[in-house]
Design goal:
By secondary structure, the chain is mainly alpha-helical. Helices cover 76% and strands 2% of the residues. The protein has a single domain, classed as Four Helix Bundle (Hemerythrin (Met), subunit A) (Up-down Bundle). It contains ten helices and two strands, in the order ααααβααααβαα. The chain has a two-stranded antiparallel ribbon with strand order 1-2. Helix 4 packs parallel to helix 8 and helix 9 crosses helix 10.
């Protein structure tokens, strides 16, 4: 009797991550429908909910030790819809539907970059290549959610008072779409969210980071989340450029010939 009960509990634990993944797909698809109807605010928040569910299904799978190849493949397919197609459709109807005959190609390039990013991630995960604590390339949920919360951010008083008069929305979105598309398929490393803990300083820092983001998302969600996503994207790229410049300077110093000694005569 006890063994049967444990078996049923085990089945529930195994099914739970996939249930969160399917819920992720549900909200991603709902975001597409909302964007097609012109309800961009709802579409953006549905994509954010998909991002939260995507985080939860991964955490549950790792904590319970129930991660499977099937779950990983399902998660990638769902992510392509929720963080690839849904944000691209939202951006198309929001800005690019009236921008020209071939403006939709920008949205297609973004979806292609998400597909390539997810395919590369699956291959690297199967080969055991990923660096612990880091993503190789901008994660697709971060890219998709940043695009998703642009519209709510553009409706805030701060945006209307300080940036709307510049009339750079179209140019800014073109640059943002191209930037995140390139970063997703690049070799730029982005840090993973720190783990929460109560026994180590690192765990306490992770708790503080999560608490701060949660507070900002609850009380200032429209004005907080887009700048946060943009900051994550830009800092990762700047870190990559800075490390590249340091590596080149170190390489140049190593290749530089040593100065002549007292025993040597300069030629």
């Amino acid at each position: 009797m006890r063994e049967g009960r444990h078996h049923r509990i085990r089945q529930v634990v195994v099914v739970a991550p996939s249930a969160f993944t399917v819920a992720n797909l549900f909200f991603g698809f709902w975001a597409i429908i909302s964007a097609a109807r012109g309800d961009f605010s709802a579409a953006g928040w549905f994509i954010v909910i998909s991002g939260v569910l995507d985080m939860l299904d991964g955490r549950i799978a790792r904590m319970s030790g129930t991660g499977t190849r099937f779950g990983a493949e399902l998660d990638s397919l769902v992510d392509l819809v929720s963080f690839g197609v849904a944000p691209a459709v939202m951006m198309y109807f929001l800005e690019f539907a009236t921008a020209g005959r071939f403006a939709w190609i920008l949205c297609f390039l973004y979806v292609t970059a998400v597909a390539l990013r997810l395919a590369r991630f699956n291959v690297m995960a199967a080969d055991g290549v990923p660096v612990p604590g880091w993503f190789t390339g901008l994660p697709s949920p971060a890219a998709g959610m940043t695009l998703a919360v642009y519209y709510p951010w553009s409706q805030t008083r701060w945006y209307q008072a300080s940036l709307a008069y510049l009339d750079l929305q179209h140019q800014g979105l073109v640059v943002l779409l191209l930037l995140v598309s390139v970063l997703m398929i690049s070799g730029v490393r982005y840090p993973k969210w720190p783990r929460i803990g109560f026994r180590t300083p690192r765990g306490l820092v992770g708790l503080g980071v999560h608490a701060g983001i949660l507070a900002g998302a609850i009380f200032f969600k429209a004005a907080f989340l887009f700048p946060l996503g943009l900051l994550y994207i830009v800092l990762g790229a700047l870190r990559y450029v800075a490390l590249g410049m340091l590596d080149r300077s170190e390489l140049a110093r190593w290749r530089r010939p040593p100065p002549p000694t007292d025993q040597e005569e300069p030629t």
